[in-house]
Amino acid sequence: MKSDRATYYAVIFSSQRSSDGEADYAKAADRMLELAQTQDGFLGVESTRGTDGFGITVSYWKSEDSIKKWKSHSEHLIAQELGRTRWYKSFKTRICKVEREYEFESLP
Amino acid sequence: MKSDRATYYAVIFSSQRSSDGEADYAKAADRMLELAQTQDGFLGVESTRGTDGFGITVSYWKSEDSIKKWKSHSEHLIAQELGRTRWYKSFKTRICKVEREYEFESLP
Prior knowledge:
Two copies of one chain form a homodimer. The first copy, chain A, has 108 residues and is of the alpha+beta class. The first copy, chain A, is 34% helix and 41% strand. The first copy, chain A, contains three helices and four strands; from the N terminus they run βαββααβ. Chain A has a four-stranded antiparallel sheet with strand order 2-3-1-4. In chain A, a hairpin with a 4-residue loop joins strand 2 and strand 3. In chain A, helix 1 (22-36) packs antiparallel against helix 3 (74-87). The two termini of chain A are 18 Å apart. At the A-B interface, strand 1, strand 2, strand 3 and strand 4 of A face strand 1, strand 2, strand 3 and strand 4 of B.
């Protein structure tokens, strides 16, 4: 099924967790998710992490402007700093324009 | 760090595994990864799946044309069909143009 949804954007955040601060991290990740959902232009998020500590979170946004605003949100800036100093060994962020999409759902 | 890499594309494949065919699935997933790496325009792949069976695989490509060719590769078509009939409850594929990126790596 092709979607005729208006143009939107995806932020692909790939990260390798350090072994530090699991409890802090889980709490902050939940809080960031909660906060992101209240931002203008937020459309949704998908996230998963394997047992090796490598994770991918993709958030979806109406515009590049909404992504920039979220990136500079004061509480998010604090989490980003803790991410760099504590929670992540490495990460990469890619801001992408979704060109087309299709999906599949099996019959129940 | 901003990258000045040429334009490239990301295919975000988000999927929910069914409980079927774990051994077949793992073997086919390995084979598809191996095969993708030999395709023209393939740049890389990141993949992870949580214990709940939800996974995200993002593959990176030089052009939309290279993505189309991979999608219609004969061996990949067979895997796609098995994906729909057997391995996945649901999935969504998004073809995206990477607009910008930045990354972080902690000091050793």
